[in-house]
Amino acid sequence: MGIQDNLESKVVLASRLRDICKDMEADELINVKPLSDHEAFNMFKEQVGRSIHFPGIKPVAELVVRECGGLPFLIDRVARTFRKKERNVSLWRDALNNLRRWENTQGMKCLNFLGFVMITWIYSDTKKVCFLYGALYPEEYDIYIDYLLECWRAEGFIPADESIHDKNAFRDARDKGHAILDDLINVSLLESSEKRKCVKMNKVLRDMALKISSQIGDFKFLAKPCEGLEEPPNHEEWKRASRISLMDNELCNLPEALECCDLLTLLLQRNKNLWNLCSLRFVSLEEFSVVIDSSKQSWDKIVETIATEVASLEKLTSLQFCFHKVDCLEIFVTTSPAWKKGSCLTFQFSVGDHDSTCFQILKSFDYPSYNRLTLVNSEGVNPVISKVLMETHAFALINHKGASRLSDFGTENMENMLVCLIERCDEIETIINGDVITKGVLECLEELRINNVLKLESIWEGPVHHGSLT
Description:
The chain has 470 residues and is of the alpha/beta class. 34% of the residues lie in helices and 14% in strands. The chain has helices spanning 18-23, 37-48, 57-67, 72-83, 89-100, 106-121, 125-133, 145-155, 167-186, 203-213, 235-240, 297-311, 326-335, 337-340, 383-389; strands at 143-144, 191-192, 198-200, 221-223, 243-245, 258-260, 265-267, 280-282, 287-289, 318-323, 346-351, 372-376, 394-398, 419-423, 430-433, 447-451, 458-461. The strands form four sheets. It has a ten-stranded parallel sheet with strand order 4-5-7-9-10-11-12-13-14-16. It has a three-stranded antiparallel sheet with strand order 1-3-2. Helix 15 links the parallel strand 12 and strand 13. Helix 4 (72-83) packs antiparallel against helix 6 (106-121). The protein is globular and about 85 Å long.
């Protein structure tokens, strides 16, 4: 490059591929963020020229710039197209509508080419569908990485090795997911968020992903998150979609008597006024998530009905659910064919009367676990809890009565436990009673947290057998 032993010289290399910068042995990698709204508009204005100051043009121009998502490449190409519209407001508005519909304007030709190049870089079909899945979330939305990887696994994008029946199966699947995520970030299809342990998708790339998914026969999306919807989409839209995202809206109900035969994924998080889920019939649903405030009486009235319906889903691979009573959990465990398959189902269960914040407690652990069980405001030791514990990696026991030791739940049921939280359990005096144990226990445990357990006298009582807490 003509630079030899000149310590005063510096070379700046720009690339969408992070690995290219690494191969060039760059001293420092700087992630260049999209332009701010102000910077993007100034760049657009410079390209368009004086016509942007004509009455009626500027408001349209601001909407055009927003569609470009702060990407300089796209702003440049779109501005060149709009410059040809001169001072005709009607032409500007029509071009904006075409831009939003991805019609074949010059700017969209460039974006389609950009999308083709970027998707071509993802040589693996698995990586392509993982990228497209990100479009189910709102633009620039902070997607929790642990949750995203679990969704990929639930969809079958990164299947666990079913021949492995221990915690290594989950770790292997998670490692594959992290490798895919790293590749998507590496080619700038996903971005690391400023929020810890989160990623996000740029508006333009999300639009591109939705366009691509609409052209794939078995990957049709109905994605309308964060749109302020009070009424659900029409029946035809539901029937065409294999994956639906209506999270963060104001829905009160869902379509009546609708058979969702091809539906694989349904995301309804944070629709606070939505209670009627029983009008839908799910046949192929693989992933189901219900996160609510279980202290509300309206949930108590329908939870058993919904739990029974969910238990009938034979293809279910991932479930997040609030069971208001242990009896309701027992309905699911004893009747669900998906549960009986064992390692095929991953879960996040919350049992007992509590507010929705308890569901987030185990997520606060900086630990990559899959199966989570939170038991709140309950009493005694129910056999179904012990049964679920056998498949649990992270366990939270909160404000529990009727147990003086954690080992009362059966140490033989804790072989897969990696994380344990005990909080506000006033009757707990010790964690493990070694006098009734004949072998090592909690061999996989990596983190134990104890908060506000006032009668606690010891962690371990009696002999400690070889292999315990190793």
